[in-house]
Specification:
Elements (H helix, E strand, L loop, with lengths): L7 H17 L3 H4 L5 H23 L9 H17 L4 H25 L2 H40 L25 H21 L4 H8 L1
Length: about 220
């Protein structure tokens, strides 16, 4: 199969689309296990696996990650199989194993991009813009659905200085958007920080201020 006719680039775009979709769609952590969104999620996880298989077919060989990563992934796959077979809730276990399999499959075609300077830059830049979108969307949803309604509720109760009385110690008032859980959002944003800082160091034009603002 020639490179020009290979569906691998299209599958790469589909993989990126589903990654962006479930990073930004509100309450994605619960939607991905509820019908009918669970079907969309499973299709999204099938894309990187199909992308991996198509690249394997095109190249007629498997390009390993090296440095012991491949052996580690084999150990993970074996442990997934064992834990899924003995799981108390087999259906949920299969869902989680399928998700892990999709992520593992994506590592190999993505690693090919990381071998080139242009590929690394584009991947790094794309994740940076997604991080900015996540930050903006997260703040917009939290302000509109949590912060402002709570301020309005406190004012209706006659609380003086409603903004100052906003209680961040309450879990339900912390930023849940858009992933649907405060801990997931906090973890994702922490992982965004190195990307935003790295892009701020890399760029010396107006984009430096964009990345620093995101950070």
């Amino acid at each position: 199969m020639s490179a020009s006719k290979s569906p691998a680039p299209l599958l790469a775009y589909f993989t990126a689309f589903f990654y962006i979709l479930f990073s930004l769609i509100p309450d994605s952590h619960s939607m991905m296990v509820a019908w009918s969104w669970v079907f969309v999620w499973q299709v999204g996880l099938f894309c990187p696996l199909l992308w991996f298989l198509v690249q394997l077919w095109d190249n007629r060989r498997l390009y390993l990650l090296g440095n012991g990563f491949d052996q580690g992934l084999i150990a993970i796959l074996i442990s997934l199989g064992i834990s899924t077979l003995g799981a108390e809730f087999p259906q949920q276990a299969r869902w989680q194993a399928w998700a892990c399999l999709g992520f593992i499959a994506a590592l190999y075609p993505i690693s090919r991009w990381l071998n080139s300077v242009t590929g690394r830059y584009r991947l790094f830049l794309g994740q940076g813009y997604l991080s900015l979108a996540f930050v903006a969307f997260s703040l917009a949803l939290w302000l509109s659905r949590t912060f402002l309604p709570e301020i309005e509720r406190l004012r209706d109760l006659g609380v003086d200085g409603a903004v100052q009385q906003f209680d961040f110690s309450l879990l339900e008032l912390r930023n849940w958007a858009p992933l649907g859980h405060q801990n997931y959002v906090a973890g994702y944003l922490i992982l965004c920080l190195p990307t935003l800082l790295g892009l701020a160091i890399l760029h010396r034009d107006w984009r430096r201020w964009l990345w620093l603002t995101g950070g």
